[in-house]
Design a protein that fits this description.
CATH class: Alpha Beta
Low-confidence stretches: 21-27
Mean pLDDT: 84
Distance between the termini: 117 Å
Strand content: 25-35%
CATH topology: Rossmann fold
Order of helices and strands: HEEEEEHEEEEHH
Number of strands: 9
Largest sheet: 9 strands, mixed
């Protein structure tokens, strides 16, 4: 005859084993990512006038193509660099959209603030324009080589005459801002401080180039 105590111990051990196995099969709760925006390109960025001036009647219409991004910067992942040439990404912090998508309307707003164009239009659009702006984010990354670390934004821009397909001018804009707190949020704040500085320089560059531009018909006279 079997001992009841031994049977009870065996049953308890079996229940414990089955419970442990079921727990191991359940997916573990993962940390939810935090999402951040790039939206601080203010109209009062360096160089912007206090009031938006009105463009001259003969001013050009500027078509702004959607910005591109270099390899490694096309996704929503927030980039940091500890070793030169090696990109790493935060595991639980992301942009709400790829930076190239977020910066597009900010570029338009910065250009409009200078008042040098009859209109500034982001493609896709059925509207036509005399000038076109092509941009590319070369880098948007946190650099950990210094203390405090810094966020660096580099943007390359080409201003093109749509009639002749000629590149009128191009420039690369670079800004580095110190990070106030050594966490992903600190990097995002620094990125939002660097963005209006870069876009202010971009707007001035385009405004100056537009001032010197002449339509192809006028150049042939």
């Amino acid at each position: 005859m079997r001992n009841p105590t031994i049977l009870r111990l065996l049953a308890a051990a079996l229940v414990l084993t089955l419970t442990s196995a079921c727990s191991a099969l359940r997916p573990t709760a993962s940390e939810q990512p935090a999402f951040y925006s790039l939206d601080n390109a203010r109209l009062d960025a360096p160089g912007a006038p206090a009031e938006m001036p009105k463009a001259a009647p003969a001013a050009a219409t500027l078509i702004v193509n959607p910005p591109q991004a270099a390899s490694g910067f096309k996704s929503q992942r927030i980039v940091y660099v500890r070793t030169a040439h090696q990109l790493e990404y935060y595991a639980h912090s992301e942009w709400i959209d790829p930076p190239a998508h977020m910066i597009a309307p900010l570029i338009v707003a910065a250009l409009e603030s200078r008042g040098r164009f009859r209109a500034v239009i982001l493609t896709p659009s059925v509207a036509a324009g005399e000038l076109r702006l092509d941009t590319e984010i070369i880098r948007l990354q946190r650099e950990l080589a210094s203390a405090p670390s810094r966020v660096r934004l580099t943007l390359r821009a080409y201003l093109v005459d749509n009639a002749t397909r000629q590149v009128l001018s191009w420039r690369e804009f670079d800004e580095s801002v110190a990070v106030a707190s050594e966490d992903p949020h600190g990097a995002v704040v620094a990125a939002n401080r660097a963005t209006p500085v870069v876009l202010g320089k971009l707007a001035d560059f385009c405004a100056d180039a537009a001032t010197q531009w002449q339509p192809a018909a006028d150049q042939q006279r």
